[in-house]
Amino acid sequence: MGRNHLISCIITLLIVSTVSWFAGMTFAGQKTIRLATVEWEPHYGPNLKKQGYISEITREAFNRVGYDVEISFMPWKRAMHDTRRGHFDGLLGLYYTKDRESWVAYTDEISSNKIVFFSKKGRHISYSKLKDLRRYKIGIERGFTYGEVFDNASFLQKEPVRNIDINFNKLINGRVDLVAASEMVFMHMITTRHADARKKIEIVEPPLGVDGIYNGIIRKKKGWEQIISDFNIGLSMIRKDGTFVSILNSHGLK
After folding, report:
1. Three-state SS across 54-69?
2. Which helix (H) or strand (E) holds 209?
3. Of 3, 16, 75, 242, which sees the most CB atoms within 10 A?
């Protein structure tokens, strides 16, 4: 009995060791992508359903090709700074700019976003080219891009602030004449936080532009080319099988 008991213990130890070894290998082999971003409802944010449709699409696309995703929300300037320093693998939901391309690689386009000017109703502001807006004070968000042409238009009176709510209040109180913003984001903010003021503002035509929304992986990340390629494959998969549209529908989008 003693010998049999010893053999049984040895076999048990071998089984436990083997299982532990495989578990360790599985854990070590897991691929996790850490992305930083800002709260930018309704595209993404910590308080949205599944952190917003961009977050859900990103997770689903990466999951299809064997990656987990961790998303951290913080002010945009900090997200850019910390990611560039290598504290994160990339950025969630960003526009393309030429100057960023030196340190971040872009995925395929996930969505798009229309940028417009908002004014108080009754101001009757109109324009056909940006120079027509030289006499107006324009509220913008610090650290954001509004397209290369607008960003480089030094003749405009731009007043940067840290968030969209400040710009809204400045517009309502007459401290700026216009606010440049994502139509979808600005209207979501008004609907959810300032519904009584909806009739006080209007969109100034034409739109400033339409920008694609991408994810970005920093070029100093080992294997960034493969990560970008894998994500694009996963994104294509969920577009083809209907998951992409299903996610949009679940967030009230089309």
Report:
1. HHHHHHHHHHHCCEEE
2. strand 201-218
3. 75
Rounded to whole angstroms, the Cα distance separating 6 from 14 reads 12
The predicted model gives 98-119 an average pLDDT of 96
What burial class does residue 66 get, using C-beta atoms within 10 Å of its C-beta: 0-12 exposed, 13-18 middle, 19+ buried?
A: exposed
Q: Kindly report whether the global pTM for this prediction surpasses the value 0.85.
A: no
Read off the tokens for 46.
């910590």
Express each pLDDT in 44-94 by its tens digit.
999 999 999 999 999 999 999 999 999 999 999 999 999 999 999 999 999
39 and 50 part of one domain: yes
137 beta partners: 157
Number of domains in the chain: 2
- pLDDT bin (cut points 50, 70, 90) of residue 196 is confident
Residue keyed to tokens 């694009």: 232
> Dihedrals φ, ψ of 94, to 5°?
-125, 160
Say yes or no: 119 and 143 in one domain.
Answer: yes
Question: Is the residue at 170 inside a domain?
Answer: yes
Give the separation between CA 111 and CA 142, rounded to whole angstroms: 22
Question: 115-148: b or e for each residue (b if 16 or more CB lie within 10 Å)?
Answer: bbbbbbeeeebebeeeeebeebbbbbbeebbbbe
Residue 42 lies in domain: 31-112+212-250
pLDDT at position 8 is 52
